[in-house]
């Protein structure tokens, strides 16, 4: 709901005239529920900045939060929400800081003695402040989502290294649950590494994979097929006894793909195959 | 219409596909290659698809057909240099390019051919010498 022009003006005037008192009260009330995780001074700095922007927006004639005059105010609110999200505060704690302005205004204006018009003003201002609070809520949620996506990407980055084990042998040690997105990344990285290093052998080590179901097996098989199409041989290693049991119970067929118990066995196998191929080529030449 | 060049290196024919393959081009290559194998008596064919960004089901099938034709003409086909993205797409499409041997690059393809090659000249065939040496 939009503020009427005179209500907006009166709130602006009030904020300007009683600035110091409101700022002090707001800072106190806002800092209370944060229980010392944010100092009164820090919280006060944030509320003071908000107050300044709010005052400026009202002076420019802002009637609601969608108007053009509140661009800077919105930016400050977004910045506050983002900061709080990163510091680990909850959405409620963030919004409460805004709602504290209501309590501060109530104390300063002394609505009870002001009669009907003061009460009407106060209700209108409250609605406006609610709008500010809701905006922080949304900004907070957006900031959180951003953090989560960022972390997911980082996790994806760090969990799929492709290492060169020997001349012509690369390995990818899989750690953690293999979902479709990760499987895709692993597949692309491994195939690219095959091209870059010109390695004819690749080892997929699943020691760090806690459970193998049909989906995970499907991903691994696809990777092996793709590597084969490119002319490289894949060896699967690091199959623990429980996982071997699961694989057999689920009826997963690895076909003619070489499987080894440990990475060492797989490496020995790859080196031996490589050496045999080299000997055969030399004999011909 | 553009044609894919076929180069002869020793007893191997090298086909390097540099542009995106149109269906007509693929069919033309299939025809030309058969002719060249007969003309040169090549024992191996290397098809380099490093330059191909897209391999659709038609091109995939044509490659399979080329491999089959070459085998009938006693030449082994090796497809080399498939890009990761192409390999992933083919697997997702369920095309496994049956009957085609693959290698990472031309060099390894040549090695693979050399390894599988049978003795080429009559002089290499020991058993042909035997009747002469044992004859009285």
Automatic annotation (TrEMBL), chain A:
Q: Where is the STAS domain?
A: 159-270
Give UniProt keywords alphabetically.
Phosphoprotein
Presence of the UniProt keyword RNA-binding in the record: no
Keyword flag Electron transport: no
| Record-linked InterPro entries | Bact_StressResp_Reg (IPR051932), RsbRD_N_dom (IPR025751), STAS_dom (IPR002645), STAS_dom_sf (IPR036513)
Protein known as? STAS domain-containing protein
Q: Supply the source organism for this entry.
A: Catellatospora methionotrophica
TrEMBL record, chain B:
SUPFAM superfamilies in UniProt: SpoIIaa-like
This protein's gene is called: rsbS
Q: Which organism is it from?
A: Catellatospora methionotrophica
What range(s) does the STAS domain occupy?
A: 2-113
Q: What's one Pfam family here?
A: STAS
Q: Which InterPro entries match?
A: Bact_StressResp_Reg, STAS_dom, STAS_dom_sf
Its name, as the record gives it, is Anti-sigma factor antagonist
